Task: structure prediction
Amino acid sequence: MVTPLSTPRAAYVHVPFCAHRCGYCDFTLVAGKDHLAGRYLAALEQELRTLGQPREVETLFVGGGTPTQLAADELERLLELMREWLILTSGGEFSVEANPAGLTEEKVEALHRYGVNRVSLGVQSFSAPLLEVLERDHREADIERAIERLRGGIENISLDLIFAVPGQTLENWRETLQRAIDFGPDHISTYGLTFEKGTAFWARRERGELLSADDALERSMYELAMDLLPEHGLRQYELSNFARAGRECRHNEVYWAGLGYYGFGPGAASYVEGVRRTNHRSVTTWLKRMEAGDSAVGESEELSIEGRAREAIWLGLRRTRGIGRKRFRESFGVDLEVLAGETIRRQVDAGLIDTEGDRIRLTREGRLMADTVAVEFL
Amino acid sequence: MKPEHIRNFSIVAHIDHGKSTLADQLLLKTGAITERQFREQILDDLDVERERGITVKARAVAIHYTPPEPGSPTYELNLIDTPGHVDFHYEVSRSLAACEGALLIIDAFQGVQAQTVANAYAAIESNLEIIPVVNKIDLPVTRVDEVLEEVETILGLDASGALKVSAKKGTGVEDVLDAIIQRIPAPNGDPKAPLKALVFDSKYDPYRGVITYLRIAEGTIRKGEKIKFLKAGTTHEAIELGQFRPGMVECDQLGPGQVGYIVTGIKELGNVHVGDTVTHAAAPTSSPFAGYKDPKPMVFCGMFPIDATDFEKLREELEKMSLNDASFSFAPETSDALGFGFRCGFLGMLHMEIIQQRLEDEADVGLIQTAPNVTYEIAKRDGEVFLIDNPLDVPDVGRIEEFREPIARVTFILPASNIGVIMQLCEDRRGVYKTTEYLGPERAQLIYELPLAEIIYDLHDKLKSATRGYGTMDYEVIGFRAADLVKMDILVKGARVDALSTIVHRDMAERRGRQLVKKLKQEIPKHQFEVALQAAIGARVIARETISAYRKNVTAKCYGGDITRKRKLLQKQKEGKKRMKQFGQVEIPQKAFLSVLEAGNED
Result:
């Protein structure tokens, strides 16, 4: 059986390039510094080498930044490196994030050739004014063209959408969802816009130049997604994720199940044998460290047995299937009842958690208040 | 040491005018400390004080100095340090009583300020030789001539002999030493007379017990002698005798004019009374000092442990505080909302903040502090008159004949252009105008009588913002006066939270009530249900706000790289929750209990 301490069967690679940093984004990336791509690829190879030997994995995920910001030959070099060090088992899932703008035929063809079978497309919105608020560099036509190109060889297409954008109405969100559904994707992720400290949006909101969406409106938008998407065969399987049966992102499910994974690139995290290491979040620091032969790790923590189990509760509750008590005991060596029986009962009384047979999971109201619930399990 | 070679002096100043820096320079120039030991504000040995740049507890340092002129004798200069803030007036005057002279420091740019006036008057009343010292002459912009004029017009002192120094750079410090020797009178006193020594301060030392600060007026005290505290009527042995130089240095005897300490084995600070007379048990003096009144706390607040099991721990911590500070008092109290805690009394707001800060730094107890209030005097219909220090002790309205509040005489010194704003501020706070005096073309002194409750509410902050920091104030409580006062309660989701009750003037109740519930609305987080906030006088609701229900609280993105960060964020939320107090279903954060005070900053 796979437990948190088993050898990871999943790997993440972070590509920190973007044409431009959007106002809400606090991810690890450099904007407008594509000339660093060569150094990045060399450093990434250095980091992959620390594996000692190629590893077999069941899921691969290339995220960013914008992986497709790399030029076609650089993208190929990246995929080549991954093929060398991270061996995907047959039937494995290979995801890459892509931006609608600049997703050329050539790049799609490269992805296909190297076995990428899932692309997560950063659509965010179809409406020009909202895309402008979000500072995205693509327009509706780019989205259509990108999906068209992906259909050429990528079997599993996911669309990312953002709601609660300043100025967005519930009606606009309904249209956004409908428009996305009409493309017939296998998977949709919906993210409520958050204002992260350190971003331009945060500063603008502090200055009163930008207004975050009303709490009640945001709630309605989220509820709309939870109602509308399943009607079209996209079942909610995690707080922000909806998929056709069998098209759930297997890689991301590793995170929520509390299982191990490798991570490469600046800001990437790995979870190996109960130790979570996060690489340095500064791209240049990561580069310099790799070039100097130093460790890329910026921060690392080893969770106690109980800490691991507690984390697995709030992470596990993000999945609509929730947590199975038997499985939990086998994986974490501790009984859910002993660890959090009282808390679970309180949340059941508050109507935020449901128990059914062996399983506990968030109710619909609980999904709306997931962080409130999570705090109780820390 | 012969009395003619002794000089006892204080340094008094408005806050931040450089008192501590000059004190350090005097120690440095006379070799009492080395350059290496010279650090900012060496006399302030409590962290709190260093942070605030003010000296809270008086200290006395004996400096030995030999002037460079050939044949000069060695002098003993006793520097008796004083606190500068309004709350500690009392400590200032008792320190001054041990001196013959005072250095009055005035900032070369800021000039005479409210506490300069208060301190100068205290020194004048104590009949001290006052040496004006204009400090910070190294500043790029100074107004030395105008400042000297202020010294003459406002304080009525002769400024012709004023010294000009830069304590920071060390400029003019020798002149200060010369002036101390030349101008401050030597103490007199007969070394053979019966012992008569003034207790001017005391502090608690965990190893030696109470350390009593003495100024010898007459006679000589020797190590091992039986001595008597005349007012307390207790007899002890002078186990240890010494001086602060600035560390404690033991000696065998102290003679007339000298300043030092004795250790007597007394364990509790409360058993040593400042102002008491120390004499020989066998041959007591026939003319003891008049003594001082004990300072009365005028500002009170409740302090409650967040975790009820910390009650005893909190008591121990408060006891520790009171060991070192006789003017701080506390007594157990019970609140429906907050459980068991203590009613704590302070000299003023600064005193309260200092104690609170010290508790936070030194004690590992989560605290909820209620908004401060002043002491009130209530005359009941049945003729009984008593003081209350807690709004919850207000009797039924029908039984009150007269509700009286403490009134303070407030002195403002401020730019003349701000007079209008400050007068308006005082009028709005029920002030009674007394006088205005122009101190020059641009500065004025304004005197008002104001309820102390209004002063602690927000007056100081308002003054600072209205005058962009240039206005200063000082106050002195002058007595109680009847007023139309009522108790205002706060209801959270229908239930009265007793710890939020306050006493307000009837005419201001509605405005204060509105401000308060508005402020509480910001402080209390959203819940999964609506929370109604009401202010009420008796059964009549005078203000209302509603905190809407939390509708959504979920982090959208949580993948591999987010998990650690996310958990830390949740952890923080959890810590925040721990600092909240549960009332029925509603969680109220610590800070909310101080809203009563901050509500005024909104208008």
Observations:
- Chain A has 15 helices and 17 strands.
- The CA atoms of residues 59 and 93 of chain A lie 5 Å apart.
- The longest strand of chain A covers residues 86-98.
